[in-house]
Amino acid sequence: NLAQPNIVRQSAISYLSGFLCRSKAVGAKKARSLLTKMINWINNYARNLSNVHTLDYMVVNKERNGPYFAACQAAFFLIAFRHTDMVVNDDVSFLTGLELS
To answer: Considering the entire predicted model, what is its pTM?
Structure first.
């Protein structure tokens, strides 16, 4: 919700990623689905920026882009902790299809 302050959005994505990574109640299919949505949001956000240097890691504007960086951290956190759910029988096609580059 864009009407919420960025700190609330950042806290929400951090809480969600911790829950998704550690909860046994979240199955592999749901984790993959939510990771896909998260990566799609990250990619759309990056594509819609008007200034190429807005996401430059040397000049981070946390007030403007904080939720973006929190979502990136959450996605990588989810991949790191749930990698066995993302790769099935050595098939990495799910991860390669996420446009992580």
So the answer is: 0.80
